[in-house]
Amino acid sequence: MAILTRIRKNYKKWTTLREYVVVLMTIFLFALFAGVPFVSTASLPDSNPKGNISLSGQPEKNNNDPFFILHNRPMSENDVLIPRLEEEANKIPPLYIVELSRRLWPTDKAKAMEWFVVGMARAEYDALRCRDKSARQGVGLLPAFAHEVASGSRQNRKAFSEAGRRALQRADLYVDEISPMWICKQGADLIDATLNEKRLSEGEPVLPASEWAPLREGVSKKIEKHLKEQEKLPDEPPPVSQDALTALVVKGSVDASAKPDKGFADDGLLKMGIESRNITAIDSLIQPDGKIVVAMHLTDKKFQSTIGLARIRPDGTLDDTFGTGGIVSTRIGPAGSPKDIGMMNDGAIVVASPGYLSHEKQGMALARHRPDGSLDRGFAEQGVFIQSTGNPSFPHALAIQSDGRIIIGGSHLIQVQRPDLGAGFSSNKGHFFLLRLTPSGVPDPTFGEQGMVATDVGGSAEITGLALQADGKIVATGTRLDESHSGIVVARYAADGALDQGFGKKGLVIRLMEKKRVYDRPTVSILPKGGVLISAAIRPTTNQLLLSRLLPDGGADAAFGTDGTLILATGPLRPQTPPVILPDGKVLVAGDVDRERKEGQTPGASNFYTIGMARFSADGRPDTSFGPEGRRVVSVGAVTDHVAQVMAEKGGRIIVVGNSSNHEDLHARDTYLVVLGLLP
Fold it and tell me: Mapped to the 3 state alphabet, what secondary structure does 138-165 carry?
């Protein structure tokens, strides 16, 4: 708690939450690895330059950390690296033992699991030898660097238990000669020194050797207990899998003032749960046949993430021709969570998600489902593509070309040095990032660099919206954040991924405002005559919707609003979804509205909302034919509701997708998917 208090007090040193998180991640990663020497680094064959991985997979010469030099060496060098690591195993810190297990995994899983347990046992032992107890927090980060071993061990618990017991019987399980200072220096003292711009004193004390023996015994007993617990659990399925889930449709009601369509589901409302799963609706689409597809993030009691899809008929009933009873579940490693969905010309549904299977297979992921919900095993690797890249990439939007090529947009993190944080510190800077796949699910070599395009637009940035022009050009929009400004960026790319020099300034249009008015998830639409319409919410000072219209060359359309921009006040409504531009030019917005708390309910509870909508005329005036002041409030939950997406059907009916919970916190259990059919 003292650490958290110290961090909160220093929060104002970083004026945005995003910078705050980046700084904390930098502190912990630096803390974990700073000063970790690999005693024989010099003797290892240096076939690669030192540094981080670029888009092409080649290291850049800007990082001298010995562990990351080793970690980024390709697996093709294992024939040389594995024997050297085994030879030095009793002279190197546990982090390198975990790395050894990762490199052994493809060829000798039993041996890899044994070394993994040895590495974790030594790390725990080293942390216990530190006087600063907070240093022990770093041990939990180590499995992430051998994720394939940790994940594979859960898929074969018996083999893991056998390997663990072999490790416990080793005479060299604990090595007192290896100094625990690699982790002792990474506790509260380092964080305190970093936050207060002090140097960390050398020689932090370690417990005396006379106290070490009971520590070893305690670690061994802890491992033995863990192995026994593992033997009682069932094996986990492989990272890419499909589960059969059962939907639980429950009764609900919609306020009459919201104008529910009585012919949709149960008087305008479909309220659905999934046993033992928590549901978060993320995105949705309406198929040409009128069926509604909803993408959901599902978590179980162990907080395992799964991608869920539900398909609903136009009458509001679950489509039993899709998956099992209208539900499909696909797990893509531990990080799978839908970010955007799209539909291909043949009716296949694609879902963009973060993906992580191993150090080499991480970044943007895409799953392709046939019209019946099953994975298309002919796409990529058994229906799922996961990007191969050294630096993390995060998807937020996708677009599908008429020829079946799929474009995913998001952010790609590039490590940059941060001398302002101190010598040796660095942080990640987000770039506009596009990835294009062929219809078969492989990176398109005709696009950018091996199918990837990263654009530095200044500050830290990410793509949140994509649209395709009729001539094949790609328009991307997103946010940019630097020390003093937040902003919207619009970029236009040629079909080969090069910036369109005839758009804006060398392919970019950037609009900046003071940082306190943060933009939230800009989206983009292509207008009939080639113009571009950008929408975004402005937060946190007021709840406003910004619409900006650009001419085909990227210039502001002076005929729209003031200098091409219209800002619409939404009052207590906090816009949560991209606005819908209706055929008659009206603008439909949906978001969360504070709900009055009833007697006995927690006064300070978070996420205590109901669903609100507002409709404006094309020139920004409230449309009073939609409701008082152009607004409607929709309540469907006992405690709190949240809107994820609003859509308009061709006939004018409004479809709202969101969540409803019987708890004051939407992250609690018993959260339902809600889909409403409302009259216009």
Answer: HHHHHHHHHHHHHHHHHHCHHHHHHHHH
Element (H, E) at 405: none
Among residues 510, 458, 503, which one has the least CA distance to residue 489?
A: 510
CA 644 to chain centre: 16
Strands 278-286 and 292-299: antiparallel
Using DSSP, state whether 296 is helix, strand or coil. strand
3-state secondary structure of 57: coil
Which residues are CB-neighbours of 568 under 8 A, at least 6 positions away? 544, 545, 546, 547, 587, 589, 616, 620
The CA distance from 628 to 623, in Å, is 9
Residue 325: name the closest of 242, 241, 243, 247 by CA: 247
Distances from the Cα of 317 to the Cαs of 245, 266, 268, 635, in angstroms? 16, 9, 11, 20
Q: What is the pLDDT averaged over residues 632-661?
A: 88
Please answer whether residues 625 and 649 qualify as being in contact, where contact means their C-beta atoms are separated by less than 8 angstroms. Answer: no
Calculate the alpha carbon distances from 351 to 297, 330, 395, 435, 605 in Å: 11, 10, 10, 14, 33
With both helix axes pointing from N to C terminus, report the angle between 94-104 and 78-87 in degrees, rounded to the nearest 10.
140
Q: Where are the beta strands (DSSP E) in 482-627?
A: 485-493, 508-514, 517-526, 532-540, 544-550, 565-569, 574-575, 580-581, 587-594, 609-616
**Among residues 529, 530, 531, 492, which one has the least CA distance to residue 510?**
492
Most confident among 298-307, 341-350, 509-518, 617-626 (mean pLDDT) = 341-350
CA 126 to chain centroid, in Å, comes to 32
Residue 650 has pLDDT above 50, yes or no: yes
Backbone φ, ψ for residue 288 (5° rounding) = -60, -30
Give the range among 163-167, 241-245, 324-328, 455-459 with minimum mean pLDDT. 241-245
Q: What are the φ/ψ torsions at residue 569 (nearest 5 degrees)?
A: -75, 130
**For helices 188-195 and 17-33, angle between their N-to-C axes, nearest 10 degrees:** 130
* SS3 readout for 617-640: CCCCCECCCCCHHHEEEECCCCCE
| Gyration radius of the chain's alpha carbons | 27
Bridge partners of 395? Answer: 410
Whole-prediction pTM value? 0.68
Helix (H) or strand (E) holding 476: strand 474-481
Those residues whose C-beta lies under 8 Å from the C-beta of residue 593, and which sit 6 or more positions away, are 572, 573, 574, 609, 610, 611, 612, 633
**Residue 413 vs residue 653, higher pLDDT:** 653
Segment 383-403, tens digit of pLDDT: 999 887 666 788 999 999 999
* Structure confidence by residue, pLDDT tens digits, 180-201: 888 876 655 555 554 454 544 4
- 450: phi then psi, degrees, rounded to nearest 5: 55, 40
pLDDT for 610 beyond 80: yes
Q: Which pLDDT does position 202 carry in this prediction?
A: 44
Q: Is 181 helix (H, G, I), strand (E, B) or coil?
A: helix
